[in-house]
Queue: 4 jobs
Job 1
Amino acid sequence: MPRPRPETAPSPATARPDRGVGPRPYPGRMTEHDDTAAQRPEVAPSKPTPPRARPDDAPKLYRLKGDAVGKATGASAPASGSASGSASAPASGSASAPAPTETAPTAPSAPTPEGATSERPPAGASSPRTPGRAWPLVIAGLAILGALGYGAYLYVGEPEPIEIPAANVVAPEVVHAVDPVELEDPTAFLAAMPATFERWSMVEATTHDPADATILPGRVAEHHTLVYTNGTAEYTVEAYQLYTEEDAVKALERQPRDGDVGEHTVAGAAVGSEARRSSETDTRVMWTHGAAYLEAVGPTEGIDAFLELLAL
């Protein structure tokens, strides 16, 4: 004889005080207890969960670990008992809620290379750039442009050199009234006497024995008689070469003269002493120039101009 089954109390999850005990109907199914479909609240459709980004899809330098991936995407690990809690019955008088979607487990991430950062770069930040290879070409181009510009400046901006011709000074040709005499084997003292100057020319040159000189016996080294003429006037010059300047001064002081001994100048510079003696027809000028003693005799009128041109 079968044993009677004990009566079991309705489960709290399925008991409904207002409608009796019985199994909970499926959501969206009409029962005999539902008077109208309007009494049941609508269930909002659940949104599909977007696929989770895989760590392998990230760049190698910025690949995140498992914990960092969860924090970056904002997803949290599923709470314990979520699966069991999803099956709990809703409160009385309310419609059934959609079951929560179970979060997929986090895939293990690849290890981060040593020395690489595990943080993603901020949005909008530019990646580090290495220097390009165009800089040498740019510098070479600038150098070539500078050289071309300098060459253009030299070609256009620099003035051409101006050649100034040398001055051509035309001096009147001096024509001597008489050709000068040619001296044969002259001494240094005789060669120092001018052969020509202006229109004057040396027309005679006579050399004497110095032992016969009477101006200062025993101290005369050379004695020459020179005749100059310009075609109209004539002057005779007696030239004595003594041994020292003191001998020349002594010879001058021994000669008769008019007045005192003065200074003899050539081109405004004093070169020795000078004395004069005049007569009715001519004038004798006596002077010293270093160790030389000289006398010029000729017409009084014009003797100073002659001595200035002679420049002895």
Note: DSSP finds six helices and eight strands in the chain.
Job 2
Amino acid sequence: MKNKYRLYVGLIFLFAGFSTSKVNACDVCGCGISIMQSGVMSRINSPFYGAGYQFNRFIHNNVEASMNGNSRVYEDRMHSLDLNYRTRFAKRWQLVFQLPLKFHQRMEDAGTSSINGLGDLSVMLNYEAIDHKWGNWKLGLWAGAGLVLPTGKYQQRDLHAQILPPNFQVGRGSYGLRPSLNFFIHNEHWGAQAESQMHFFSTNELGYSWGNTYNNSIQGFYMSNVGSIQFNLNLGMRWDIIEKDSLFSELEENTGGRVNYGILRFDIKYKQSIFSVQYLKPIKNVLPENQPYPTGLFSIQYFHEL
């Protein structure tokens, strides 16, 4: 029965004139935990609006799978402009919206393929489960659940008019669920923070389903005030685990993997304004040889408390 469905879909693509690039894109995009879920903003229970920019770069190994016909693909670049808004509708409840605008580039011998557009909208509901003072220390725990809506394009084409791989598209074409936990403890100057987020996605209309994703991080931070300006320095580690994707309920061979990152983050808070810079550097990755590997994720963000 499964073979019959594959044949049916294949014939539809053939007669419709569709062709799909066989060159993979990276499953481990490094974007699992947004920059707004770390640092100062995650420890402040106030409404805000903000905007940020993220850049991620991937290198393709020199293997046969990196060939797009007679043209070798060697690099992917992913840019994202994120618009963020958070509101508080009760003492312990938050509602967070994130709308990404994406611009992706794929470099190969024949030229550069560029796609852009609205990404998938995320809506997150957070609950403050713990807000406790213990001497000079403050403890906090936020629990959340997010919904990812399929607002982004997911069948854009490269310069050869072939449909680009699913993990390179600006959208997924499927719904997602994102439960999360965020724990922190700090005194006047020192603190630590641990975050965990999971991603579960439905199958899109092309029969493609992304593997479950697990993002976990732990960071230590130092806070200092100079007049009315607060400085925050964060150092930590992050572990991303991505299960294999599937097509028509069968696992895709060259998908999934694990990446460990080092985290460096710097926040400046002045009155109601917060500016953040973050860099994630891959330290170790376990990825299929046919899958491109990340070189680092750079993010900058501005928030304004309401």
Note: The helical segments are 2-16.
Job 3
Amino acid sequence: MWGPPELSAVAVAFDFAGDLHGLSIGGPTERTREQLHEHVATLVNAKQQILLTWRKSEAA
């Protein structure tokens, strides 16, 4: 019989210059659950920073 998953992940996808990309954070399920809100905030912030940096470089 299978138990709960031992590994979980949270991910965010984004369009970068016409190509789809993704960022993810994975780890032990218990720790992922405990830090879910922090992981989501980190991924959303990273996505925003990547897109902002890319847009600035395209404008230059």
Note: The mean pLDDT is 91.
Job 4
Amino acid sequence: MVVTVLGLGGEALEKVLDLVQSECRNLGRKPVFVTDRDEFGPFRRRRLIVEQVPDAEALAVRFPDLPWTLYRERLFALIGRRWRPVASASFGRRPDARCLAALDER
């Protein structure tokens, strides 16, 4: 199961990690988290799998000539091929539809 936590940090992230970890344990699933932040401590403390994608919107402001949304979409496709998720859930800022669809590309 891929769980996006884009834009989340601090206490909000901690609460989501606790919730998802508990639910996945009950369902017998292993979550793979996708974040756009560089705050990995909460994931490491829990020994959770985490993948990082760029904050395409913020980067597009700084470097408008580069295709950040396409880059992020390709990263979601790689995450999908690597982990082959059976489901996905989003907390925080939801990724655009193309990124979620890219999780299913095989």
Note: The helical segments are 10-27, 41-45, 56-62, 68-83, 97-102.
